[in-house]
Structure formats: structure tokens, C-alpha cells
Design goal:
By secondary structure, the chain is mainly α. It has 23 helices and four strands. Helix 17 runs parallel beside helix 20.
Length: 501
Amino acid sequence: MERDTSEPLGGESASLVRERVGLALAPLAFAALWLVPFELSTEAHRLAAIMGAVVVLWVTEAIPMAMTAFLGVAAAVVLGIAPATVAFAPFADPLIFLFIGTFMLAQAIFFHRLDRRFAFSILSLPGVGDSPARVLVAYAAVSCAISMWISNTATVAMMFPIGVSLLQALESRVGVALPAAFGTALLLSNAFGASIGGIATPVGTPPNLIGIGFIRRELGVDLPFFSWMALGLPVVALLLAWALFDLARTGVPRGTRLVGASDLVRRERAALGPWTRGERNTLFAFGATVFLWVLPGAIALVAGQEAPAYLWLAAHLPEGVVALLGAGLLFVLPTDLSRHEFTLPWREAVRIDWWIVFLYGGGIALGTLAFKTGLAEALGRSLTALLGVHSAFGLIALSTALATVLSETTSNTAAANMVVPVVIAFAQSAGIDPVLPAIAATMGSSLGFMLPVSTPCNAIVYGSGRIPLLRMMRHGVVLDVVGVMTIVAVVTLLGPIVLGR
């Protein structure tokens, strides 16, 4: 989550104050939990103290989040909670390599500007034209579609200048009355569309892989790519439809034509020039990867999960391996053999978001230790007694709401790391199947639309100066509520059908 320094507080930015408070509170939380006489094993008690400090540092972002995860795992070794080989084993989890392969594919898409070609191709479709409503829908749909496969933040960063250029070009034209509300709606649709789109696929946003990892490691349940999409796509479709309706009713001027919008998009698309070999190679590698991700689930849907073809693919081509194979194609498909140049230069490949990879590994490691030491089980029993939730529906609703609220105050990735293992332990203690509540909590971690600091997506568009804070909050809080209800409904109704649970 990016720092927002736009709001001074006593001469210092609010984020700087929060970080300093975090540095002070973290050791206090550690000491307090260390000294409280819990009825826990020695290892679980020590881990509780570590987790208390880690949560404070994650929420306040007092130090880089990935480093917090590293230090938490290292402290577990120092305090004798687990040997290093056990504590650091989750850093070699197959989903780590799914992250790495996916990020490299995304980096190639950016490097060859394939994302911009896709965006302008959609915006120039017949029917979009000069209609404010259709431009809004197309712009948001592009953000949503791209973010299904690459970072939400990167999607907004790419689409943001396109939206600003479009608005500036329209405002410069004489005789075009462009209400400020339309600019607000257009840029918000970028941020909201990208955050929503990430829910659709396992690789759309880090919280998805974090939740899937906990479900696989702690429950022994694999969620195939296709199965996740069967739940994620309905959530995305419903949420995007609501977001566009809500933005359009206050931001789209009735009877106004955006004269020149089509010309601008056409010029920008023409400026991209003909397809390059790098673009074609990237598209091939990406398409092959997605095909192999979806193929096992499609076979299972038609022939069942006992079909020999499905079992072979699941055993030999899991998602992490497919991602690495797809990324590997980028280094063997040439763009200029005479100069020994290939689709993705290594100098570009190493620019991926390594901090998310490290944060994921650390979060999974701490969550795994919580289960191994019995801390998660003890926490689950305590929450069961405190909250009195004894039905699957109630836990799904509670999990989604809790993850959503937390995602408003900390990063979505940290929210997933904190909430999903607790939900799993809570469900096991209450005698409820934990898979669906864990999925709901994972999806809820991707919400949080209300504040500029809720997600980097919001922060980027808020920085344009075109979005009043109250407008973002009003649209965002409604979208949060609708998001919780949508996730609860889809997971409750479709989850048993898709997953057979």
C-alpha cells in the first residue's frame, strides 16, 4: 500500500505518524503478550507474542511489510518455536513460483506495451464512440479485464494516464461541456474496476494466492484455477455492474456527447504501430499459460475429477509449474537472433514485485507455525465462545465482513495473511467446513474501496485532484457493502455446487 502524504497532521503526514506509532507499539505488543499467562504451550505462547508485534507492524507499515514477515519467521527460530528448516520451508511452496512466473509474464506485457494495445483496442470498438456512458463502461471493463491477470496497481498505473489524457483532450475542445463529476466517475471506475477484476482469477491479486495457499496447506484441499474462476467471475460481474451503475447515475451527464473521444482513441491506437515480434511472442506465452491453467478444470467439469486426463494434468502441470513454463518461453522465443535478443531481457525480469513474493512466503510461514504450535486452534476456540457463530452462513458473512473492514486500514495482502488462518481455525473449532469461509475471507480481502489509503489503486487516482474525498468515500462504502453481500451470496449458493462441499 502506497504512502499518502497529502493529509498533514501536526506538521507531519498521517502515514508518518502511523509508522512511528507502530514502531513504539510493536515491542509493547510483544512484551504484553509474552507476559500474559495464557493457557498455551510454550511454543504457542511465544508465537502469539511474535504475531502480536507482526500484526502491529503490518497494520501500521512501520517497516517494509516483507521485512516484517522475514523478521517474524526469524524470531520464531531464535525463540525455539521451530527449527529453521521447518520455519522457512513455506518459502519454497509451489505457489511462490506461481507468483514469480505470473509476475514475469506481466512484466513482459508491460515491457512490450501489450496492455496499451489491448486497452485502446477495446476503447475503439464500435458502439463505444462518443457516448459518456459507453466510454465509462469500456474504460472500467478494460481495467477489470487486465487486472484479472496482472497486478491491480500496475493496471491502474497503466490506465490512469489514458483516462487523464482522454479528459484533458475533451476539456480542451471548444463547446464541449464536461462536468467535473464525469472525470470523477471515469477515474474511480479505473480504480474500482481493477480492484474488482483481481478477484476473478487465482493470479489476479496476491490475496487470492495467499488464501488458496492456506486452504491447500492446512486443509489439504486444492482449488483448481477453473474452480476459483467459477466463483470469482460471478462476483466480479455483479460487483462491476453495481459499481458502474452507481458511478453513472451521478457522473454521466444526460444528453451529452463526448465529441472527439473516438478520434483521440483512434490516434493513440495508430501511434502504437504494427505488432512487434515481442508482442506476438508475449501474447503466445501468455495465451499458452492461461490455456494450461484452465484446461484441467475444464476437463474435470466435463469428465469428472477421476478422469485420467485430469489426474495427469493435475499431477504434472500444477499452476506453479505452468507459470514457470510460460515465463520460460519469454526467454527462448527470440525477437532478434542475430543480436541474441529474446522476448524478456533479464534486466526487465528482475524488476518484478519481489516484496510480494517475500511477504507471501513469510505470511504462509507464520500461519503454518500457528497451526503447528496449536495457537490457531486456541484462537479459534476463543472466537467460537466469544462470537457464538455456529452456522456456515454466519461464518461466511462474518469472515467476509471482517476481511473487508481490515482491508480498509491495511493492505489487502496483509489482511489476507491475518484473517484467513484465523477463519480456518475458527471454523474448525466450531465444527464448520472451513473451505467456503476461507474463500469468502480471501475475496473480502480484495475489497476496501472507501479511502485513498485503502489500496494503491485508490491512491493513484485520488492523486489526480479530480476526486473529492467525500465522493470516493460515498461510492466506496456502498461498494464495500454490496461487495460483502455479493461474496456471501455467491460463495454460499455456488460454492457447494462448484466445489462439491
